[in-house]
Design brief:
The structure is a homodimer. By secondary structure, chain A is α+β, with helices and mostly antiparallel strands. Chain A has 9 helices and 17 strands. Chain A is 30% helix and 27% strand. In chain A, strand 1 and strand 2 (9-13) form a beta hairpin. Chains A and B meet through helix 2, strand 11 and helix 9 of A and helix 2, strand 11 and helix 9 of B.
Chain lengths: 323, 323
């Protein structure tokens, strides 16, 4: 027997005569209708994306404001979630800013490259990023089975010549690939390839992973791009008849992302922190001229989406309570 | 044109007249045959498992030996990979030992419960683990989309009464479930449910995740168990006709793991560190009696499989070089 009793409570007497009393709001939140479930899931995970091409005006915020003001921090994280990239301006031009920004959220993710990492021209570089060469479009760290979800990069000093940044919306590229070259799309979503990384930094390491270049969920929605040619293993674990289709598919995907109409190009200014979705965006940089008297120096850090979404939900609760 | 030249090198002249010279060993390692690929992948990932039931004699190592001796450390990690659980005895009975053990590998994984966490009876507990109640079999932290791969728990002091540990081989349970109740197996591998966790510890948090209770890869091999009834959301994001099959499947799975013939029961001794695969094993503990003069205290830490496998590969290289 079900009846509404006082205070908008719902009383249920079960066949074994046990009685339960539920708050009606609590019950409503557990409604099994498709519409109710969809709106709750959207509120929890905010999976809507705004796909971009070269015409994107990168959303911009103020570094100090984001640290101090909850509304500014919420706007920052909402744009990061939806657009995939936000520039924060006005940070001090010294190390430690990406760590402060990570603490604003919760904590950063330690990796073999350290708590934070310095992108600059290094002797005996253990990573292509630590040279002045061009970096073609990639996602960071596919050699980890769970690559970092979010990346913060702070420009402490910029090269006098070169070093421009390039980004592409990988989720948008997947959509285009599926339309223009369904065979390549099928190959890259179904073929696992190996990534590898070894060296010594925070400590010594020898990583090996297997990844789909494009991760899609069981409903076919793209979840993550795993692509970094510098750490893709030269061992290809495929039957020989899949080798050429794989390279053809990979070329179709990289050709697509290198089209000028898909790529956003910008120059990081000293004191600027670029924050972006490393599961979604591919990023690169043009080569630059390294001079003894003017060195390029970026500091970076990783976070994961679980921690970012946790902070986003908490900020939303606080800001909505006050508005 | 392909020919073997001096020093066992292979020279290839391509149709465009470019010449490449390969080391024959390098080429052999890239052989596309099924057998060659299988053996290389096994060497890289060591995916063979030894499934256990209640008769398991938990592999045991010496804590100080593992810290100091590479061969002992390698044996520890190989057993952890293959059997899923290893006990290390002889650790000092004070905090800091799980962190030392994690540094032996690389680094530990920080979570909202801190770098390490103290399992003891706490006032205003933010987690059921921090009470003296029974903990039914579970994996840790399914509320994170990438739950920690490995768990270290150090017993600093044990309860005078109760507090026995229980573990079950989740991969073995999946095998049994698939055989005994294929419908339940299909439900738990195809239905995503929500996990949630909120509170304040290392900092404030509000986590929400969607997971399959049993994660299988595209070839149907089990990869990970995600199950913790204490953090399973009371909101169930399913069409109403899937609700009862889901609960029925979940009950079949938990009934299976609670059968005495499947469960290993043991008592942690002070100075012992249990290290286990959190993707594979479900663990629990019986309730205990908390007395003001004799408190139970465990310290725990998380790591991920990428870092553990990295250390395992490096140790194997060192040990094999010297034998």
């Amino acid at each position: 027997m079900v009846e509404v009793i006082n205070d908008n409570k719902v009383s249920v007497v079960w066949p074994d005569h046990h009685t339960s009393v539920f708050d009606s709001e609590w019950l409503r939140r557990r409604c099994f209708s498709t519409a109710a479930r969809q709106s709750l899931q959207e509120e929890l995970f905010l999976n809507d994306r705004y796909y971009f091409d070269s015409k994107l005006n990168i959303p911009t915020g103020d570094y100090e404001e984001v640290l101090q003001d909850d509304q500014a921090a919420l706007a920052w994280l909402l744009a990061l979630r939806r657009d995939g990239i936000v520039r924060l301006k006005g940070a001090p031009r010294e190390r430690g800013q990406v760590a402060r920004l990570a603490e604003r959220i919760g904590y950063l993710r330690l990796t073999f490259y350290g708590h934070t990492w310095q992108v600059q021209d290094k002797n005996m570089a253990n990573n292509l990023a630590y040279t002045s060469n061009r970096l073609s479009l990639h996602t960071d760290y596919p050699a980890l089975h769970f690559s970092p979800g979010v990346q913060f990069v702070h420009c402490i000093s910029q090269a006098v010549e070169g070093g421009e940044s390039e980004v592409v919306d990988g989720f948008h590229m997947v959509e285009l690939l599926q339309r223009e070259d369904p065979e390549a799309y099928r190959t890259l979503t179904s073929t696992q390839v190996d990534f590898t990384d070894m060296g010594r930094d925070y400590c010594d390491f020898l990583l090996q992973s297997k990844k789909h270049i494009i991760d899609v969920d069981r409903k076919g929605r793209v979840e993550r791009i795993n692509f970094n040619n510098a750490t893709r293993d030269s061992v290809l674990d495929l039957p020989v008849h899949q080798v050429q289709p794989f390279y053809r598919g990979l070329k179709a995907f990289t050709d697509l992302m290198n089209r000028p109409e898909n790529m956003v190009c910008y120059t990081m200014e000293p004191g600027e922190v670029v924050t972006f979705d490393n599961w979604r965006l591919l990023h690169g940089r043009r080569s630059y001229v390294s001079r003894p008297d003017s060195s390029r120096h970026l500091e970076g850090a990783y976070l994961d989406w679980d921690e970012v979404m946790s902070r986003l939900r908490l900020l939303r609760n606080i800001v909505h309570k006050h508005t």
